[in-house]
Amino acid sequence: MIAAIRTDSSTIIGTGHVMRCLTLADELRRQGAEVEFICRDLQGNIIDRIRSAGYAVHRLPAAESTPAGDGRHDDYDRWLAVDKQVDCRQTAETLSVIGETIDWLIVDHYALGCDWETGVRPCVDHIMVIDDLANRIHDCDMLLDQSHFTKASERYRNLTPTGCEKLLGPRYAMLRPAFLQRRSRQKARTGRIERVLVFFGGGDPTNETGKALAALAELGETTDLTVDVVVGGANPNAAAIEARCRNTEGFSSHLNVDNMDELMSVADLALGAGGTTTWERCCLGLPSVVVAIAENQEEIGYEVANSGAGIYLGRREEVSVATLTGVVESLMRDETRLQAMSRAGMSLVDGRGAERVAARLRAGIKQGLLL
């Protein structure tokens, strides 16, 4: 089986799309598939990380005038940085250069939809789309939405072709094997908060990390908190965050980590965004305070809160330092609630999602998509 993955990372986009595609690529490779990536050369990308994982990356040229990041996450056309027709043509040309019969084109990009997918379809046998917005029509044979929604099947009712197989819910959350391994030996949470993990995605252009650090620093004046701060490779405030941690007792910064499972395992509470790491936290039963830093994270935040696995505070502009301080302070007095949040999270995600997705992709080829 040969698969090509079209996805991007940048200061505006962050790194979550690439990271979950890398997880799927690793599982496909483990099951014997050949995988190559197609990514545009955008500011703040992590193409080198894909290559360091052993994958060929076909780099689409940077736009002549790429818009500067201003913190907006929901203007998805800006994510692409070029006209969609240009991207479609360049991707199709790249697929032809790969040369082999491409069994699956996997697309993880909020800026791309039906017209683009139809345009590249002659170059591949099948198309799978990874989405969680449910805001546009797709021309695909399989759709993956790993988010937790009460009426998940209704969201794509008129957005996919007849016969499209849908893989819906955290059962398909694509986590690295390290999380499954760590989960098997994760001790039950006590509900006490002594160590806090902060991570707001690979980009975090509006510096929600700084806001969280300010809140925890206030608490640190009266408590002995240990704080681990994870900074992604596309974070424009990385140097300032590192300096602040260096000068604050009990605070440590970690850049481009590959041991997130370990950091989550030893933490008692997480402050973070509602992206892919939501499912990582759930898998390890880590209670979370969630802030939406992008449009697609709002529904995820509500649903995770409704399931009891976390506390959702709203969109980033609605959340202040004082709000974060107050919520953490309240949780420090409620061990029972934290224990319940831990159990609820682990019941949502078991860590075998990538294995299931890869198996369905292989089955789709064997069965001719008569699924």
Main beta-sheet annotation: 7 strands, parallel
For the record, give the distance between the C-alpha atoms at the N and C termini, rounded to a whole number: 18 Å
Order of helices and strands: EHEHEHHEHEEHEHEHEHEHEHEHEHHH
Return the average pLDDT rounded to an integer: 92
Give the total of beta strands: 13
List low-pLDDT spans: 66-73
Q: Report the total helices.
A: 15
What's the gyration radius in Å?
Answer: 20 Å
Describe this structure in words.
By secondary structure, the chain is of the alpha/beta class. The protein has two domains: 2-175 and 351-366, 3-Layer(aba) Sandwich (Rossmann fold), CATH 3.40.50.11190; 178-348, 3-Layer(aba) Sandwich (Rossmann fold), CATH 3.40.50.2000. The protein is built from 15 helices and 13 strands. Strands 3-2-1-4-5-6-7 form a seven-stranded parallel beta sheet, with helices on both faces. α1 packs across α15 (353-366) and α4 runs parallel beside α5. The longest helix has 15 residues, at 16-30. The model is unreliable at 66-73 (pLDDT under 50).
Give a quick rundown of the structure.
With 371 residues, the chain is of the alpha/beta class. It contains 15 helices and 13 strands.
SSE order and pairing:
Elements: E1 2-7, H1 16-30, E2 34-40, H2 47-52, E3 56-60, H3 76-80, H4 84-98, E4 104-108, H5 114-120, E5 126-130, E6 142-145, H6 152-155, E7 165-168, H7 177-184, E8 195-199, H8 208-220, E9 226-231, H9 238-246, E10 251-255, H10 260-266, E11 269-273, H11 277-283, E12 288-292, H12 296-307, E13 310-315, H13 321-331, H14 335-348, H15 353-366
Parallel strand pairs: 1-2, 1-4, 2-3, 4-5, 5-6, 6-7, 8-9, 8-11, 9-10, 11-12, 12-13
Helix pairs in contact: 1-15, 4-5, 8-13, 11-14
